[in-house]
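Lab meeting tomorrow. Look over both lines:
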Amino acid sequence: MDIVTVGPGINNKYAGFFYATDRKIRNGLIRLGHNITHISDRDIASSALGLRFVGKKLANRKLLKVVEAIKPDFLILFQAHLIEADTLLALKKRLPNCKIANIDNDLIYTKTRFLRLLKFKSLVDVTFITSAGEHLKRLRKEGLRSAYLPNCTDSSIERGNPFIDVNLTYDFIYFAGDVLQSRRWELPLKVASIAPDVKCGFFGHGKTRIFGSRYFQLLKNSKLALNWNKMNDLYLYSSDRISQLFGTGRCVCLYRGSGFQRFISEKEALFFSDADDLASKIRTVLHKDQWQEIAQRGQDHYRTLFNEKRIAEYIIKFTFDENISNYEWCDV
């Protein structure tokens, strides 16, 4: 198929977010044999000398020109927040057979983010979000054809084999772009106080988020990594960091309340209930050198279930009403 994708471009985090989900899904689509044309609404808008209103209009106009030239079978929006409903309406009139999917990786916990999805309600064929539970139910109640989309990994981007290298700087690592007073830091800091013998690396406090090669260098120099989000009891929700942790082969620490036991077993991740439980399990797997086996099994399993080709294929099949019964999350 000819597919046009719209989303972040090279200016996103000054190219430091080269491991973003949209990049991996585009790789998957290409590896499935599709012809992909990508445009960045944000990069186009930024060319308007900082005039946001002008830049937004320019981005929407460019999208229509690209679509008119290519006449795609499928349009995929990735966090394309500058694209207007009127633009999609015009596109639908010109290409009534072109399917449209809207993919949003953000946690849909504010009214603004929820309304952002609703504005395309009658214009997109499907809306994908990376959480299940109440947020997905709410979208469906509003009449959106919605589906859960796992965070994908791409072995050409997320590389690493910590289970063959024991000379790593950190036993336990955590990243969070948030102020130190945030509740997100309470759990990792408590783990560090309970287990002072564990070499911890905590990064991102003070909202100084780390991107690019430095992020991967730090991550690949750790044995265990904590997947801990702004909301941790929302069914099957995680930021895309979960794919980076599993993809690079860390021994991933997952909160039991997240529900990921549906896909990942105790042999493939370190599940915990609270800080005391996590600290105890970290010490155990480090002392017995079990973290390496868990890391390897976790990486292999996550890459099998949630690789970029499989997720891209699921997006196509769900959008085009094809059989999706062989995907483990099809009934979420």
